[in-house]
Sequence to fold (376 residues):
Amino acid sequence: MLTARGRSSTDAPWRVGVLFSYTGYMALIEETQLRGTLLAVDEINAQGGVNGREILPILYDPASDPATCGRYAKKLMISDNVTMIFGCYTSSSRKAVLPIVERLNGLLWYPTIYEGFELSPNVIYTGAAPNQNSVKLCRYLMRNYGTRFYFIGSDYIYPRESNRIMREVVCRHGGRVVGETYLGLRALRGDFRPVMREIKELQPDVIFSTVVGDATTYLYQSYADAGFNPKVMPIASLTTTETEIFAMGFDVGEYHLTAAPYFQNLPGNSNELFVQKYKRRYGDDQPTNMCAEAAYFQMHIFAKALAATNSTDPEILRPMVLGSNFEAPQGKVTINAASHHTDLWTRIGRANRHGQFDLIEQSMSPVTADPFLLAY
Fold:
């Protein structure tokens, strides 16, 4: 019997929605977010669930389509009577779900880096905001490679907005953007050849990539085909993880750079246990990444708040979430009460021949989320 919205006096499972694509052009990375989510659910349920009740994930596959993501979000909240949704990778998908959770008063847990400049009371943002990756990466690149940037991205909200921010940071520090191009989300290997010819003509010091999904693999492979030297002119990215390196080939990914809160190679007991459990469930050859890690720790933060409130009503649960912290694989993280974003670690890694990232720079402590770049 329900005693309040989301609160029950029975031992029925806690139902939550999960929206990650395991088909389509975004499946490569979104499936790892699904894996991180389900791994956390398994851990929680193995310990008796939350207040004696298991978490039951209601899964739908949006098939890499934002409109489908929006339709499934509506189905979860209306037909499945779910108030908590864990999901979305692209900003287009988040934008499709956002008006639904706001209108129906649900809570979207969003574990993906994004362009910032958004704050909704119906979203908990657990991926990095621009001040936690773009700013530090730009400074590192200009200090170590040069001031001439070439931007390449997938053609949707996040890359265009991320590049707008990066352009401002580059120019403010005396740099210059010598070229900028966008390709469709379904871009194939051949589509990158004209881009490589343009890069060869322009001779930038660094390529800044916000290409996502399967196209990431084709970008790096086309770069290798063109004979460029990543020691001299690397691709630096916010979106290329261990998973994309695994798909493109370790030799292709070697020496390229990524800024992220988390890398699989990080030391520490929390991360070692996370990696062991992930590989035990999904295979020894399957790498973790920042997207899987954020999906993993946000489920644990939810469970912690749920245990305290015994309710999935966002009005009851949200105050317990805001300001809470968790010892995540990347280190201690905190849900920033002022911004609904997460205070995360800032790190820069260089891909090695083993498909992992060698840590070359990191913050001394978690960086306070600043989604509107008020400090810059």
